[in-house]
Amino acid sequence: MRLGSGTFATCCVAIEVLGIAVFLRGFFPAPVRSSARAEHGAEPPAPEPSAGASSNWTTLPSPLFSKVVIVLIDALRDDFVFGSKGVKFMPYTTYLVEKGASHSFVAEAKPPTVTMPRIKALMTGSLPGFVDVVRNLNSPALLEDNETWVKLFPKHFAEYDGTTSFFVSDYTEVDNNVTRHLDKVLKRGDWDMLILHYLGLDHIGHISGPNSPLIGHKLSEMDSVLMKIHTSLQSKERETPLPNLLVLCGDHGMSETGSHGASSMEEVNTPLILISSAFERKPGDIRHPKHVQQTDVAATLAIALGLPIPKDSVGSLLFPVVEGRPMREQLRFLHLNTVQLSKLLQENVPSYEKDPGFEQFKMSERLHGNWIRLYLEEKHSEVLFNLGSKVLRQYLAALKTLSLSLSTQVAQYDMYSMMVGTVVVLEVLTLLLLSVPQALHRKAELEVPLSSPGFSLLFYLVILVLSAVHVIVCTSAESSCYFCGLSWLAAGGVMVLASALLCVIVSVLTNVLVGGNTSRKNPVHPSSRWSELDLLILLGTAGHVLSLGASSFVEEEHQTWYFLVNTLCLALSQETYRNYFLGDDSEPPCGLHVEQGLDGATPAWQDGSACDALERDKGHRSPSPSQVLRGHEKWMVLASPWLILACCRLLRSLNQTGVQWAHRPDLGHWLTSSDHKAELSVLAAISLLVVFVLVQRGCSSVSKAALALGLLGVYCYRAAIGSVQFPWRPASQDISKGIIEARFVYIFVLGILFTGTKDLLKSQVIAADFKLKTVGLWEIHSGLVLLAALLFRPHNLPVLAFSLLIQTLMTKFIWKPLRHDAAEITVMHYWFGQAFFYFQGNSNNIATVDISAGFVGLDTYVEIPAVLLTAFGTYAGPVLWASHLVYFLSSETRSSSALSHACFCYALICSIPVSTYIVLVTSLRYHLFIWSVFSPKLLYEGMHLLITAAVCVFFTAMDQTRLTQS
Amino acid sequence: MKDTDIKRLLYTHLLCIFSIILSVFIPSLFLENFSILETHLTWLCICSGFVTAVNLVLYLAVKPNTSSKRSSLSHKVTRFLKCCIYFLMSCFSFHVIFVLYGAPLIELALETFLFAVILSTFTTVPCLCLLGPNLKAWLRVFSRNGVTSIWENSLQMTTISSFVGAWLGALPIPLDWERPWQVWPISCTLGATFGYVAGLVVSPLWIYWNRKQLTYKNN
């Protein structure tokens, strides 16, 4: 079957997406879970151990507190309460911590520090797996929604008031919504447990970081809420026999930039304060509270309320809470907790008997039994107390070890699914690499031997072997396996795909070997050689791929791209100088017969096989273009690489991203702070103006007007939500959600995209009007630019303007005069796209995804548009560069096959890192940083591949229109 | 001509390497607490001075380009001044390039500038010594197939290897090993130094190895 190389590459990427999906499903393990799900609640509580003597205490202990109020403040960092900020803004809480009857701890949250998994951890004590973040991306929880609770525990709230808060920029209304019923509820007192979840602090953090003045206000407000609840609870206490409990906690912290999601100290440490009159008042000041785990809260609350501890909880009881109780009860509580933990251990660890925690548990249970016997025989004695405290210590040690071994126990990777995914992806990559010479050939077509009968036997054999393996693996596997859980049809389909790919590879390989023998006989390429640029591109790609194996390079990947793009610019500038000052290609060789060490000898792209396009292009390049250009244009050509370098340097200082240098001050923070609103407004206006000037030149007059109105709408939208201001209305009192303005812009985006598509279709159907097609493509590009302008935060608008500026400079002064071939241009576009991904402020950390992009112009949370908008907003850099690539190659019709070459190269250059990365991640799966560094990057890579697939489809569609045209 | 020339080239290069080694050991006799990493800036100055001095001495002693005619004193002085200006210009342009590569703009400016100085010492000073302040000749040497003697050939190789060394030296900076040599610009200066030394060692050997194939226009 003959395929164009663009179509072929698109198919390959599509299959790769499938492979990555299977891999991801296998990679993110299911979290530690108790299997006893069916008999929920049927299990009786473990009786008190007793050696010989009969103890009649088999029921659950009675509750310790009558009412529990949990005040959960989103993104409450430990130093907001225990640090200087706490002293300043939360005087009542500080008083309670220092002098009141309370216990305070620092609760460590496990990454990912995102709201939904953290609430799960707090309330059930279980450790949500990393995959919960992925699910969270699609669920409203990451989008900071008060209804999280109602969704998480749908049937457990008798009364709730789920308030909606869709706007991260909204930080007062959210909390007023929570507080509005507080007085009424507190007075009524017909409840057992009250959970108040305050989101305002988190929103402030997202907007302006932890050092914003707004934080202080919010903390004072929280302090007054806490005081109100506490006094009300204290006044209630006289009526009830039991004391009340007030819990103040945070779900996760806040990094120095105000976001969360990763595992830095600031994000992980949250305060946890338990306040009750049952606790002893302790004098003195505690500045350094004990560190505990966040999962401990669930177990403690269960004990406190006299409920069974959740089965999946890995937490241990916070002992100070029960310290005031009699010894027998204390031991009973600890016993219940250890029994629950050891059960969980038994279900998750095959060799649980060798676990030190389990041994300690058995020992302390025996001691406990002895103590009970003594206790029942005689009461109140020194011996009894000493023995009791010994048992207590033993229990606490056992709890600690058990909890630790449970939470560090990494759930098993689903190796089989991972292997299947890896095999598919690697097969596709091999196929792509093998077909490089054919695909980059002038004709840009290649033979895909899908139906070659010679390999049918091999094909069936491979299928047979694979299904045998499948059956064996699935019948013998102890742990759950996603791929085995698939239906037979789906699994069979994947197997057929894998074996078909294998056969294709084998046949292509034989073709290459046979063909290689014939071509070696006649030397076809006597004179062409690699330029330094090709060498750089090759080395850069290889270096980037290899750097993905080191966690620091993954964290600081933006540095890699900035470095590569800079070097690329320098190489380009060297090339322009050479062309204009020397024109050395036309010069005869000066007697040095051996080529210099840097320049390789093989005339090839990638793996030493020939590439006609390159060679032909070299031929084009030889008529020295210096005669063609004159005067200032020549100087522009010489200066443009330096201009681009300067732009990149400016953009780099706009958003400080990554980990090591993330705390460094950058322009973006300076601009977003509330003191510099005027500067930000001016900058945003100028950027929008630049965008308009650069974009309008290629558009038709209708879309020119639409673009102008749209960009105006973007500014109005930003002014409406209060991030920029109008000069004539300096104080913006009324901050709205800007729905109307944003929808106004959406209409123009759709209009421009529609005009572009119409032009494209017209150029295809009616007349072979080449110019119309170029205009159509440019209109699609400008529609995307307008959408990006709407979604980008105002301080990021210069990124957009500079991206357009660089594109214009490159097109005019570098690519056109220097006549690079399609492959080189594609790789350059890809590199710039990657660099712009990071210029936008993204990183390989989930916390930097700008979720507010998903709410622009939406009244309520609608899943699909929100996800699409967030994805586009995040990947705007690469997408815009890819769309520019399509436009550029179609407008410069030097060769008919440029577009399919470009598509093939784009697919190849995107799939090399992703396929290498999954192999690397598989081999590094026991690395210390696997969850904090490598897994988020894996998600980003998967998403990037999906975007690449979309881009390739667009490419192929454009290519198809060209084919039908000619 | 060949073997004696190559030998002379080798000896001059060995002298250069020797001067770099000396710049590591001699200052510790006079200065207290001298070490490459801790008093890096001092070392940079000393190394730069040593290498420049050796290059000048070699230029005066060996005179590889015999073609230069007798000229008046004033001509020599202007030539020297021109060389100084070229050197300074190259320092500043390297500084600009480092800033474009992401070096901090204001803080650590002295460090960045000294890095520019040492890189200029490894690249511009030999060029100035060998080719003089003559941009045409520079362009010729650094274009493809433009070299006309083994001296220029080795110059090309040492210069390129110094650049590549400095470029590679930037790679370990993002790693989280927290070593003292990862601090900007130590790894880059060390990379440039190693690149320069490698170029000095390799170029005579490479020329010796390929002496049969090498034919220059004017020989």
Automatic annotation (TrEMBL), chain A:
PANTHER family the record matches? GPI ETHANOLAMINE PHOSPHATE TRANSFERASE 2, PHOSPHATIDYLINOSITOL GLYCAN-RELATED
Residue ranges annotated as transmembrane are 415-434, 455-473, 485-514, 535-554, 678-695, 707-726, 738-755, 775-792, 866-890, 902-926, 938-958
Instruction: Give the matching Gene3D superfamilies.
Output: Alkaline Phosphatase, subunit A (3.40.720.10)
The GO molecular function terms of this record are: CP2 mannose-ethanolamine phosphotransferase activity
Species of provenance = Rhinopithecus bieti
List residues of the GPI ethanolamine phosphate transferase 2 C-terminal domain: 633-949
Q: What is its main location?
A: endoplasmic reticulum
Keywords assigned by UniProt, alphabetized: Endoplasmic reticulum, Glycoprotein, GPI-anchor biosynthesis, Membrane, Transferase, Transmembrane, Transmembrane helix
Query: InterPro entries attached here?
Result: Alkaline_phosphatase_core_sf, Phosphodiest/P_Trfase, PIG-G_N, PIGG/GPI7, PIGG/GPI7_C
- Keyword match Transmembrane helix: yes
Report the locations given in the UniProt record. Endoplasmic reticulum membrane
Does Zinc count among this protein's keywords? no
Q: What is this protein called?
A: Phosphatidylinositol glycan anchor biosynthesis class G (EMM blood group)
From TrEMBL, chain B:
- CC terms in the record's Gene Ontology section: endoplasmic reticulum membrane
Concerning InterPro entries, the annotation shows:
GPI_biosynthesis_protein_Pig-F (IPR009580)
Q: What keywords would UniProt list here?
A: Endoplasmic reticulum, GPI-anchor biosynthesis, Membrane, Transmembrane, Transmembrane helix
Transmembrane portions of the chain? 9-29, 41-62, 83-106, 112-133, 154-175, 181-209
Localization recorded for this chain is: Endoplasmic reticulum membrane
Give the matching Pfam families. Answer: PIG-F
GO biological process terms on file: GPI anchor biosynthetic process
Q: Where on the tree of life does the source sit, at the highest rank?
A: Eukaryota
* Record's keyword annotation contains Metal-binding: no
Q: Does the keyword Repeat apply?
A: no
Membrane topology summary: Multi-pass membrane protein
The pathway that the record names for this protein is: Glycolipid biosynthesis; glycosylphosphatidylinositol-anchor biosynthesis
What is this protein identified as? Answer: Phosphatidylinositol glycan anchor biosynthesis class F
User: Lineage from the top down?
Assistant: Eukaryota, Metazoa, Chordata, Craniata, Vertebrata
Q: State the encoding gene.
A: PIGF
